[in-house]
Specification:
alpha+beta; about 475 residues; two-stranded parallel ribbon; 9 helices
Length: about 475
Protein backbone atom coordinates (compact mmCIF):
# COMPACT_ATOMS: atom_id res chain seq x y z
CA UNK A 1 0.00 0.00 0.00
CA UNK A 2 2.85 2.41 0.82
CA UNK A 3 4.54 1.71 -2.51
CA UNK A 4 1.25 2.37 -4.28
CA UNK A 5 0.92 5.80 -2.64
CA UNK A 6 4.56 6.68 -3.47
CA UNK A 7 4.01 5.63 -7.07
CA UNK A 8 0.91 7.85 -7.48
CA UNK A 9 2.70 10.85 -5.93
CA UNK A 10 5.69 10.39 -8.27
CA UNK A 11 3.41 10.01 -11.28
CA UNK A 12 1.59 13.23 -10.42
CA UNK A 13 4.89 15.09 -10.11
CA UNK A 14 6.03 13.65 -13.43
CA UNK A 15 2.90 14.79 -15.24
CA UNK A 16 3.47 18.35 -14.04
CA UNK A 17 7.19 18.46 -14.74
CA UNK A 18 7.70 16.68 -18.11
CA UNK A 19 7.36 19.06 -21.12
CA UNK A 20 4.31 18.28 -23.22
CA UNK A 21 3.71 18.52 -26.96
CA UNK A 22 2.53 22.12 -26.51
CA UNK A 23 6.21 23.02 -26.15
CA UNK A 24 7.02 21.38 -29.47
CA UNK A 25 5.45 23.71 -32.06
CA UNK A 26 5.87 23.39 -35.80
CA UNK A 27 6.70 26.28 -38.15
CA UNK A 28 3.22 27.79 -37.86
CA UNK A 29 3.78 28.58 -34.15
CA UNK A 30 6.68 31.02 -34.15
CA UNK A 31 6.85 31.46 -30.37
CA UNK A 32 10.11 29.84 -29.35
CA UNK A 33 10.36 27.17 -26.69
CA UNK A 34 12.65 27.70 -23.69
CA UNK A 35 16.35 27.30 -24.40
CA UNK A 36 17.20 23.65 -24.92
CA UNK A 37 20.05 21.95 -23.12
CA UNK A 38 23.10 21.30 -25.31
CA UNK A 39 23.21 17.91 -26.99
CA UNK A 40 26.48 16.15 -27.76
CA UNK A 41 25.20 15.52 -31.30
CA UNK A 42 23.64 18.92 -31.88
CA UNK A 43 25.37 22.05 -33.17
CA UNK A 44 24.15 25.58 -33.60
CA UNK A 45 23.34 26.49 -37.20
CA UNK A 46 21.53 29.25 -39.00
CA UNK A 47 18.24 28.28 -37.39
CA UNK A 48 19.74 28.74 -33.92
CA UNK A 49 21.04 32.20 -34.65
CA UNK A 50 24.74 31.30 -34.41
CA UNK A 51 27.14 30.66 -37.24
CA UNK A 52 29.33 27.58 -37.17
CA UNK A 53 33.02 28.16 -36.87
CA UNK A 54 33.58 27.29 -40.53
CA UNK A 55 31.13 29.87 -41.83
CA UNK A 56 32.63 32.82 -43.68
CA UNK A 57 29.74 35.25 -43.41
CA UNK A 58 25.99 35.57 -42.90
CA UNK A 59 23.64 37.02 -45.48
CA UNK A 60 20.04 38.13 -44.83
CA UNK A 61 17.80 37.68 -47.87
CA UNK A 62 14.22 37.87 -49.04
CA UNK A 63 13.04 35.71 -51.94
CA UNK A 64 12.99 38.65 -54.35
CA UNK A 65 16.51 39.67 -53.31
CA UNK A 66 17.77 36.11 -53.75
CA UNK A 67 16.28 35.89 -57.24
CA UNK A 68 17.72 39.24 -58.31
CA UNK A 69 21.11 38.16 -56.98
CA UNK A 70 20.88 34.91 -58.93
CA UNK A 71 20.00 36.78 -62.13
CA UNK A 72 23.08 38.93 -61.61
CA UNK A 73 25.58 36.20 -60.71
CA UNK A 74 24.39 32.93 -62.23
CA UNK A 75 26.59 31.97 -65.21
CA UNK A 76 23.64 30.46 -67.08
CA UNK A 77 22.25 33.97 -67.57
CA UNK A 78 25.55 35.28 -68.92
CA UNK A 79 25.87 32.29 -71.24
CA UNK A 80 22.37 32.81 -72.65
CA UNK A 81 22.94 36.54 -73.20
CA UNK A 82 26.25 35.91 -74.96
CA UNK A 83 24.61 33.35 -77.24
CA UNK A 84 21.87 35.88 -78.04
CA UNK A 85 24.47 38.54 -78.86
CA UNK A 86 26.34 36.07 -81.08
CA UNK A 87 23.13 35.19 -82.94
CA UNK A 88 22.56 38.88 -83.65
CA UNK A 89 25.91 39.07 -85.43
CA UNK A 90 24.76 36.48 -87.99
CA UNK A 91 22.27 39.01 -89.33
CA UNK A 92 25.09 41.48 -89.92
CA UNK A 93 26.98 38.79 -91.81
CA UNK A 94 24.11 38.31 -94.25
CA UNK A 95 23.48 42.06 -94.57
CA UNK A 96 27.07 42.52 -95.72
CA UNK A 97 26.02 41.16 -99.12
CA UNK A 98 24.12 44.42 -99.76
CA UNK A 99 27.33 46.46 -99.52
CA UNK A 100 30.15 46.64 -102.04
CA UNK A 101 33.41 44.83 -101.45
CA UNK A 102 36.54 46.84 -102.09
CA UNK A 103 39.97 45.29 -101.89
CA UNK A 104 43.50 46.32 -102.71
CA UNK A 105 45.86 44.21 -104.83
CA UNK A 106 49.62 44.14 -105.13
CA UNK A 107 50.98 41.83 -107.83
CA UNK A 108 54.47 40.98 -109.10
CA UNK A 109 55.11 38.55 -111.97
CA UNK A 110 58.25 37.09 -113.57
CA UNK A 111 57.66 34.84 -116.58
CA UNK A 112 59.44 33.24 -119.50
CA UNK A 113 59.44 35.37 -122.61
CA UNK A 114 56.19 34.95 -124.52
CA UNK A 115 54.64 32.59 -121.96
CA UNK A 116 50.92 31.90 -122.02
CA UNK A 117 48.62 30.03 -119.61
CA UNK A 118 47.84 26.99 -121.70
CA UNK A 119 46.11 24.67 -119.18
CA UNK A 120 43.40 25.16 -116.60
CA UNK A 121 41.01 27.31 -118.67
CA UNK A 122 39.67 28.13 -122.14
CA UNK A 123 41.51 31.42 -122.43
CA UNK A 124 45.29 31.63 -122.62
CA UNK A 125 46.45 35.13 -121.66
CA UNK A 126 50.03 36.24 -122.21
CA UNK A 127 52.20 36.58 -119.10
CA UNK A 128 54.37 39.70 -118.90
CA UNK A 129 56.93 40.65 -116.32
CA UNK A 130 55.41 43.39 -114.22
CA UNK A 131 54.86 44.93 -110.80
CA UNK A 132 51.42 46.48 -110.31
CA UNK A 133 49.14 47.85 -107.61
CA UNK A 134 45.44 48.59 -107.74
CA UNK A 135 41.96 48.18 -106.32
CA UNK A 136 38.95 46.09 -107.33
CA UNK A 137 35.27 46.66 -106.56
CA UNK A 138 32.37 44.19 -106.60
CA UNK A 139 28.74 45.12 -105.92
CA UNK A 140 25.75 42.82 -106.00
CA UNK A 141 22.84 44.44 -107.81
CA UNK A 142 20.20 41.78 -107.18
CA UNK A 143 19.82 38.13 -106.28
CA UNK A 144 16.01 38.27 -106.49
CA UNK A 145 15.41 38.30 -102.72
CA UNK A 146 17.73 35.54 -101.50
CA UNK A 147 19.84 37.83 -99.34
CA UNK A 148 16.72 39.54 -98.00
CA UNK A 149 15.28 36.18 -96.93
CA UNK A 150 18.56 35.20 -95.28
CA UNK A 151 18.65 38.48 -93.35
CA UNK A 152 15.07 37.94 -92.12
CA UNK A 153 15.93 34.36 -91.16
CA UNK A 154 18.92 35.53 -89.12
CA UNK A 155 16.81 38.19 -87.40
CA UNK A 156 14.18 35.63 -86.44
CA UNK A 157 16.83 33.24 -85.13
CA UNK A 158 18.34 36.04 -83.05
CA UNK A 159 14.89 36.79 -81.61
CA UNK A 160 14.48 33.08 -80.85
CA UNK A 161 17.82 33.10 -79.06
CA UNK A 162 16.60 36.05 -76.97
CA UNK A 163 13.62 33.96 -75.95
CA UNK A 164 15.98 31.17 -74.93
CA UNK A 165 17.81 33.71 -72.79
CA UNK A 166 14.49 34.65 -71.19
CA UNK A 167 13.78 30.96 -70.61
CA UNK A 168 17.14 30.61 -68.88
CA UNK A 169 16.15 33.56 -66.73
CA UNK A 170 12.89 31.85 -65.79
CA UNK A 171 14.77 28.62 -65.03
CA UNK A 172 17.14 30.45 -62.69
CA UNK A 173 14.24 32.17 -60.92
CA UNK A 174 12.50 28.83 -60.37
CA UNK A 175 15.61 27.01 -59.15
CA UNK A 176 16.43 29.90 -56.83
CA UNK A 177 12.93 29.90 -55.35
CA UNK A 178 12.97 26.15 -54.85
CA UNK A 179 16.38 26.32 -53.16
CA UNK A 180 15.15 29.21 -51.00
CA UNK A 181 12.12 27.30 -49.72
CA UNK A 182 14.20 24.16 -49.25
CA UNK A 183 16.46 26.08 -46.85
CA UNK A 184 13.43 27.35 -44.94
CA UNK A 185 12.00 23.83 -44.82
CA UNK A 186 15.31 22.41 -43.58
CA UNK A 187 15.47 25.07 -40.86
CA UNK A 188 11.93 24.23 -39.72
CA UNK A 189 12.74 20.50 -39.67
CA UNK A 190 15.90 21.21 -37.67
CA UNK A 191 13.87 23.09 -35.05
CA UNK A 192 11.50 20.14 -34.72
CA UNK A 193 14.44 17.74 -34.46
CA UNK A 194 16.11 19.77 -31.70
CA UNK A 195 12.95 20.06 -29.66
CA UNK A 196 12.27 16.36 -30.13
CA UNK A 197 15.73 15.50 -28.82
CA UNK A 198 15.24 17.82 -25.84
CA UNK A 199 11.85 16.34 -24.95
CA UNK A 200 13.01 12.73 -25.30
CA UNK A 201 16.18 13.44 -23.31
CA UNK A 202 14.03 14.85 -20.52
CA UNK A 203 11.83 11.78 -20.62
CA UNK A 204 14.89 9.50 -20.41
CA UNK A 205 16.07 11.40 -17.34
CA UNK A 206 12.66 11.15 -15.65
CA UNK A 207 12.15 7.45 -16.43
CA UNK A 208 15.70 6.68 -15.29
CA UNK A 209 15.03 8.47 -12.00
CA UNK A 210 11.83 6.49 -11.48
CA UNK A 211 13.60 3.24 -12.37
CA UNK A 212 16.19 3.89 -9.67
CA UNK A 213 13.31 4.06 -7.18
CA UNK A 214 11.83 0.85 -8.60
CA UNK A 215 8.82 2.75 -9.98
CA UNK A 216 9.70 1.90 -13.58
CA UNK A 217 11.55 -1.02 -15.11
CA UNK A 218 14.81 -1.06 -17.04
CA UNK A 219 12.75 -2.00 -20.09
CA UNK A 220 11.07 1.41 -19.88
CA UNK A 221 14.49 3.05 -19.69
CA UNK A 222 15.71 1.06 -22.69
CA UNK A 223 12.71 2.06 -24.80
CA UNK A 224 13.14 5.70 -23.83
CA UNK A 225 16.82 5.60 -24.77
CA UNK A 226 16.04 3.98 -28.11
CA UNK A 227 13.60 6.78 -28.86
CA UNK A 228 16.23 9.32 -27.84
CA UNK A 229 18.80 7.72 -30.15
CA UNK A 230 16.32 7.82 -33.01
CA UNK A 231 15.72 11.52 -32.36
CA UNK A 232 19.46 12.20 -32.27
CA UNK A 233 19.89 10.47 -35.61
CA UNK A 234 17.07 12.59 -37.00
CA UNK A 235 18.85 15.69 -35.66
CA UNK A 236 22.12 14.75 -37.39
CA UNK A 237 20.27 14.20 -40.66
CA UNK A 238 18.40 17.50 -40.28
CA UNK A 239 21.66 19.38 -39.68
CA UNK A 240 23.20 17.77 -42.76
CA UNK A 241 20.12 18.58 -44.86
CA UNK A 242 20.30 22.22 -43.82
CA UNK A 243 23.97 22.47 -44.76
CA UNK A 244 23.28 20.82 -48.11
CA UNK A 245 20.37 23.14 -48.86
CA UNK A 246 22.47 26.16 -47.88
CA UNK A 247 25.21 25.00 -50.27
CA UNK A 248 22.65 24.50 -53.05
CA UNK A 249 21.26 28.00 -52.59
CA UNK A 250 24.77 29.48 -52.55
CA UNK A 251 25.59 27.69 -55.82
CA UNK A 252 22.43 29.01 -57.49
CA UNK A 253 23.25 32.53 -56.33
CA UNK A 254 26.82 32.24 -57.57
CA UNK A 255 28.27 32.77 -54.09
CA UNK A 256 30.89 30.89 -52.07
CA UNK A 257 29.57 27.77 -50.41
CA UNK A 258 30.48 28.77 -46.84
CA UNK A 259 27.82 31.50 -46.55
CA UNK A 260 24.98 31.14 -44.06
CA UNK A 261 21.67 32.61 -45.13
CA UNK A 262 19.15 34.29 -42.85
CA UNK A 263 16.03 34.00 -44.98
CA UNK A 264 12.83 35.94 -44.49
CA UNK A 265 9.48 34.18 -44.44
CA UNK A 266 7.39 34.88 -47.52
CA UNK A 267 3.71 35.84 -47.24
CA UNK A 268 1.45 32.95 -48.13
CA UNK A 269 -0.03 33.28 -51.62
CA UNK A 270 -3.69 32.97 -52.48
CA UNK A 271 -4.97 29.59 -53.54
CA UNK A 272 -5.37 29.09 -57.27
CA UNK A 273 -8.74 28.95 -58.95
CA UNK A 274 -10.11 25.52 -59.72
CA UNK A 275 -10.10 25.76 -63.54
CA UNK A 276 -6.62 25.50 -65.11
CA UNK A 277 -7.77 26.47 -68.62
CA UNK A 278 -7.11 30.24 -68.20
CA UNK A 279 -3.63 29.42 -66.94
CA UNK A 280 -3.04 27.13 -69.94
CA UNK A 281 -4.03 29.92 -72.33
CA UNK A 282 -1.74 32.28 -70.45
CA UNK A 283 1.12 29.78 -70.71
CA UNK A 284 0.60 29.35 -74.47
CA UNK A 285 0.86 33.14 -74.82
CA UNK A 286 3.74 33.81 -72.44
CA UNK A 287 6.08 30.83 -72.24
CA UNK A 288 9.45 31.96 -73.67
CA UNK A 289 10.32 28.58 -75.17
CA UNK A 290 7.02 28.58 -77.09
CA UNK A 291 7.79 32.01 -78.48
CA UNK A 292 11.26 30.82 -79.37
CA UNK A 293 9.97 27.73 -81.17
CA UNK A 294 7.50 29.85 -83.13
CA UNK A 295 10.31 32.18 -84.19
CA UNK A 296 12.45 29.19 -85.19
CA UNK A 297 9.63 27.90 -87.39
CA UNK A 298 9.26 31.33 -89.01
CA UNK A 299 13.02 31.39 -89.61
CA UNK A 300 12.85 27.95 -91.21
CA UNK A 301 10.15 29.20 -93.60
CA UNK A 302 12.35 32.16 -94.54
CA UNK A 303 15.19 29.78 -95.29
CA UNK A 304 12.91 27.77 -97.58
CA UNK A 305 12.25 30.94 -99.57
CA UNK A 306 15.95 31.76 -99.62
CA UNK A 307 16.82 28.32 -100.97
CA UNK A 308 14.10 28.64 -103.62
CA UNK A 309 15.70 31.93 -104.76
CA UNK A 310 18.81 29.98 -105.77
CA UNK A 311 16.96 29.14 -108.99
CA UNK A 312 16.93 32.85 -109.97
CA UNK A 313 19.76 34.79 -111.67
CA UNK A 314 22.18 37.06 -109.81
CA UNK A 315 23.64 40.30 -111.16
CA UNK A 316 26.86 41.99 -110.10
CA UNK A 317 28.80 45.04 -111.25
CA UNK A 318 32.57 45.04 -111.06
CA UNK A 319 35.39 47.51 -111.51
CA UNK A 320 39.18 47.60 -111.28
CA UNK A 321 41.86 50.30 -111.55
CA UNK A 322 45.54 50.59 -110.78
CA UNK A 323 49.07 51.50 -111.83
CA UNK A 324 52.01 49.52 -113.19
CA UNK A 325 55.19 51.26 -112.05
CA UNK A 326 57.42 48.56 -113.56
CA UNK A 327 56.89 46.06 -116.37
CA UNK A 328 57.45 45.11 -119.95
CA UNK A 329 56.73 47.69 -122.63
CA UNK A 330 53.61 45.84 -123.74
CA UNK A 331 51.98 46.70 -120.38
CA UNK A 332 50.68 50.25 -119.93
CA UNK A 333 51.64 52.15 -116.78
CA UNK A 334 48.04 52.21 -115.62
CA UNK A 335 44.83 50.29 -116.14
CA UNK A 336 41.05 50.54 -115.41
CA UNK A 337 37.88 48.73 -116.36
CA UNK A 338 34.24 48.32 -115.30
CA UNK A 339 31.46 45.91 -116.22
CA UNK A 340 28.62 43.73 -115.09
CA UNK A 341 27.89 40.04 -114.92
CA UNK A 342 24.62 38.14 -114.84
CA UNK A 343 24.81 34.54 -113.64
CA UNK A 344 21.88 32.33 -114.63
CA UNK A 345 21.68 28.83 -113.09
CA UNK A 346 20.71 26.30 -115.76
CA UNK A 347 21.70 22.87 -114.51
CA UNK A 348 23.69 21.72 -111.47
CA UNK A 349 22.60 18.13 -111.06
CA UNK A 350 19.52 18.97 -108.94
CA UNK A 351 21.58 20.58 -106.16
CA UNK A 352 19.34 23.60 -105.65
CA UNK A 353 16.17 21.50 -105.82
CA UNK A 354 17.53 19.15 -103.13
CA UNK A 355 18.57 22.07 -100.93
CA UNK A 356 15.10 23.58 -101.16
CA UNK A 357 13.47 20.23 -100.37
CA UNK A 358 15.73 19.79 -97.33
CA UNK A 359 14.83 23.25 -96.04
CA UNK A 360 11.12 22.62 -96.56
CA UNK A 361 11.22 19.32 -94.65
CA UNK A 362 13.11 20.93 -91.78
CA UNK A 363 10.49 23.70 -91.65
CA UNK A 364 7.75 21.07 -91.37
CA UNK A 365 9.71 19.37 -88.59
CA UNK A 366 9.96 22.72 -86.79
CA UNK A 367 6.17 23.03 -86.99
CA UNK A 368 5.75 19.58 -85.47
CA UNK A 369 8.16 20.44 -82.64
CA UNK A 370 6.12 23.52 -81.91
CA UNK A 371 2.88 21.53 -81.80
CA UNK A 372 4.48 18.96 -79.50
CA UNK A 373 5.75 21.67 -77.17
CA UNK A 374 2.28 23.24 -76.96
CA UNK A 375 0.85 19.89 -75.88
CA UNK A 376 3.58 19.42 -73.26
CA UNK A 377 3.15 22.96 -71.92
CA UNK A 378 -0.59 22.40 -71.45
CA UNK A 379 0.17 19.13 -69.66
CA UNK A 380 2.80 20.75 -67.42
CA UNK A 381 0.38 23.52 -66.40
CA UNK A 382 -2.32 21.00 -65.51
CA UNK A 383 0.11 18.88 -63.49
CA UNK A 384 1.50 21.97 -61.73
CA UNK A 385 -2.01 23.07 -60.77
CA UNK A 386 -2.87 19.62 -59.43
CA UNK A 387 0.34 19.49 -57.39
CA UNK A 388 -0.33 22.97 -56.01
CA UNK A 389 -3.83 21.99 -54.93
CA UNK A 390 -2.53 18.81 -53.31
CA UNK A 391 0.19 20.74 -51.47
CA UNK A 392 -2.38 23.30 -50.31
CA UNK A 393 -4.58 20.56 -48.89
CA UNK A 394 -1.60 18.96 -47.17
CA UNK A 395 -1.01 22.17 -45.20
CA UNK A 396 -4.41 21.96 -43.55
CA UNK A 397 -4.34 18.19 -43.25
CA UNK A 398 -0.88 18.15 -41.65
CA UNK A 399 -1.95 20.82 -39.18
CA UNK A 400 -4.97 18.74 -38.22
CA UNK A 401 -2.80 15.63 -38.02
CA UNK A 402 -0.42 17.39 -35.66
CA UNK A 403 -3.27 18.39 -33.37
CA UNK A 404 -4.56 14.83 -33.32
CA UNK A 405 -1.07 13.50 -32.63
CA UNK A 406 -0.69 15.97 -29.77
CA UNK A 407 -3.97 14.78 -28.24
CA UNK A 408 -2.96 11.16 -28.66
CA UNK A 409 0.41 11.85 -27.05
CA UNK A 410 -1.27 13.57 -24.08
CA UNK A 411 -3.52 10.57 -23.52
CA UNK A 412 -0.69 8.06 -23.93
CA UNK A 413 1.54 10.01 -21.58
CA UNK A 414 -1.18 10.25 -18.93
CA UNK A 415 -1.96 6.54 -19.22
CA UNK A 416 1.70 5.68 -18.93
CA UNK A 417 2.15 7.80 -15.81
CA UNK A 418 -0.88 6.20 -14.22
CA UNK A 419 0.46 2.74 -14.99
CA UNK A 420 -2.39 1.93 -17.37
CA UNK A 421 -0.17 1.37 -20.44
CA UNK A 422 3.35 0.34 -21.32
CA UNK A 423 6.30 2.30 -22.70
CA UNK A 424 5.52 0.78 -26.12
CA UNK A 425 2.29 2.75 -26.39
CA UNK A 426 4.03 5.95 -25.29
CA UNK A 427 6.87 5.36 -27.77
CA UNK A 428 4.41 4.92 -30.62
CA UNK A 429 2.65 8.14 -29.61
CA UNK A 430 6.02 9.95 -29.60
CA UNK A 431 6.84 8.65 -33.07
CA UNK A 432 3.44 9.66 -34.40
CA UNK A 433 3.81 13.15 -32.92
CA UNK A 434 7.27 13.63 -34.39
CA UNK A 435 6.10 12.44 -37.80
CA UNK A 436 3.15 14.84 -37.70
CA UNK A 437 5.37 17.74 -36.63
CA UNK A 438 7.80 17.07 -39.46
CA UNK A 439 4.96 16.88 -41.99
CA UNK A 440 3.53 20.17 -40.75
CA UNK A 441 6.97 21.81 -40.77
CA UNK A 442 7.46 20.85 -44.44
CA UNK A 443 3.95 21.33 -45.81
CA UNK A 444 3.94 25.14 -45.89
CA UNK A 445 7.22 25.43 -47.81
CA UNK A 446 6.31 22.62 -50.17
CA UNK A 447 3.11 24.47 -51.02
CA UNK A 448 5.00 27.72 -51.63
CA UNK A 449 7.44 25.88 -53.91
CA UNK A 450 4.55 24.32 -55.86
CA UNK A 451 2.89 27.72 -56.19
CA UNK A 452 6.16 29.07 -57.51
CA UNK A 453 6.20 26.29 -60.10
CA UNK A 454 2.73 27.29 -61.32
CA UNK A 455 3.99 30.82 -61.98
CA UNK A 456 6.94 29.33 -63.86
CA UNK A 457 4.79 27.03 -65.97
CA UNK A 458 2.56 29.94 -67.02
CA UNK A 459 5.53 32.18 -67.91
CA UNK A 460 4.65 34.69 -65.18
CA UNK A 461 7.60 34.25 -62.82
CA UNK A 462 9.28 37.53 -61.83
CA UNK A 463 11.51 38.54 -58.90
CA UNK A 464 9.06 41.24 -57.81
CA UNK A 465 6.02 39.01 -57.29
CA UNK A 466 6.98 35.38 -57.93
CA UNK A 467 4.10 33.83 -56.01
CA UNK A 468 1.23 36.09 -56.97
CA UNK A 469 1.83 36.52 -60.69
CA UNK A 470 -0.90 35.05 -62.81
Amino acid sequence: MTKRIIFLIAAALLVRSVPSHAQLPGPATPAAAPALPPSPLAGEGAAGGKMPASAGSSLPLTLAEAQKLALKNNPRISEALLNAAAALEVRSQYRAAYLPTLQGNLTGVISDKGSRLAAGGLNNPVLYNRFAAGVSLNQMVTDFGRTSQLVDMARLKADAQNQLAEQSRQDVLLVTGQAYFEVLRAQAVLKVARKTVAARQYLVDQVSALAKNNLKTELDVSFAKVNLGDAQMMLVQAENSLKASQAQLAAVLGLPGDILFRLAEEPLPAQLAGDPEPLIRQALRNRPELKGRQLEEDAAQKFVQAEHALHYPTMNVMGAAGVVPAGQKQVDDRYGAAGFNISVPIFNGGLFKAREAEARLKAQAARERLDDLEVRVARDVRVACLEEKTAYRKVGMSEQLQKQAETAFDLAFSRYNLGLSSIVELSQAQLNLTSAQLAFASAKYEWEAKRLNVAYQTGALTPSSPLTSS
